[in-house]
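Sequence in, structure out. Go.
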Amino acid sequence: MTDVKTKAGTREWIGLSVLVLGSLLITIDIGVLYFALPPISEALKPSGTQQLWIMDIYAFGLAGLMITMGWLGDKFGRRRMLMIGATVFGIASVCSAYSSSPGMLIGSRALLGVGGAILTPTALALISNMFHNPKERKTAIAAFSGTISGGAAIGPILGGLLLGHFWWGSVFLINVPVMLLLLILAPLVLPEFSNPSHGRLDVLGVLLSLAAILPLIWGIKELAVNGYSVTPLVALIAGAIFFIAFLLRQRSTDSPLIDLSLFKARGFSGGVVINLLVMLAFAGASLLTNQFLQLVLGYSALKAALWSLAVSPVVGGATGVIAPLAHKVKPGNLLAGAMAVVAVGFGFLTQVHTSSGVWLVLAGSAGVGAGLVASKQIINEIVVTSAPPERAGSAVAVSETFSEFGAALGVATLGSIAAAVFHKQMANVTAPGLDTTALHAAHDTLGGTTAVAAQLPPSAGQTLISAGRTAFVNGLNLTAIVGVVGVAALALFFGFYLRRTPVLAGFPEPPAAPPMETSLAAEPAV
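Output:
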């Protein structure tokens, strides 16, 4: 058993910076495409369906493969898998940048998702192996969690800046030098951890996990964007059936992808569910506040993204506050407090009006973002310390897969509430000279309202857009009220549910595991 008081050296801290930098690109790559899509559409002429696949296939690859890749890292070596992931991510970035057709770009983005699915669980699992001292491990996980959360905000800004000076492929090529740096430094500063006795890969389990996760996420996204229809409903039902089959398979096989016994620990089960819920709140709130900045206040996408950076000190401060408290306060209370901060953020959003300034919206975003970062910092600590060392990668993959589900559910649930209010209030709004198609577009989304209003005489256009903005803000307010009530109730529930989970600083070193191959530099990189 490793001495938990062992201090990390320079090599470990340099290794952490490599892991953080590489994983930061994964979250940046999710948002960076928003600015690049118009020039991509102009150059490659994708259909509407192809545009959606260009946007979504990356997230599908991440969510669908993380559990499998986490298992492979545990089995064959986390450093080895990390370097394979960096290689795949770098190659896919070059292919994406120089794609000559929509199909090639979709395929390249799918490969990016595969690379990201390898990098994410192995990076956080390696942190658990590198930092045995609880205080240092907290600092490392806090740095990792805070930086990764910030990547979502950096992506659109970085995309806007690059596209102001270069062609659209530049948003992908920025990944290449970072991945090359990771490949050079990883063998020098990252240890290798593997568990050869992990068993054989459960291929049927892999197929069942993909058959469950992909239809579920696709169905949720489709319902959120296009409303109710039979096809996404069938996808959700099929995904649920495959999910049940996947769980049954995990219980019966000798080499499961997920150790279901981990869920017997309240800290782990509560943590991954909270991970889903806070991502749900964050994704839903971000969807609506970003639209408010652009469509109600009239900011450009780049200006809105730059304004969103104003909340960074508050969000970053959450990391600094949580770190010392984690040594003294039980995680159930900390998570309840973090979720209460999310509820306060939603409380600010209940007060937003069409005439509100940017600061009220930013205050709401700061509360939701700070609660998210604080929660994920605690959850990551719980996840990596709850699992036996040889299954840390699989445990992290489960948590991050829940996170992907939360993001999709946030857009679907909170976005649907706002959309329902908007549709109801716009149903009887009309303007002279509008045909059925234009009227339908004006009633569908605030973006459609804005586009249609621009084609009308100034007086009629202003009346229409004023009605659209009012309906949108009313939807935002109701969604925020639901957020306040829901998150506050969940904070109370999980504070009680996790009341017996010990203070994180007092977590014992995980129990002895089967023999693991461990080295610092002797083992081949790939």
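Check: Residues 505-526 have pLDDT under 50 and may be disordered. The first strand starts at residue 192 and ends at 194.
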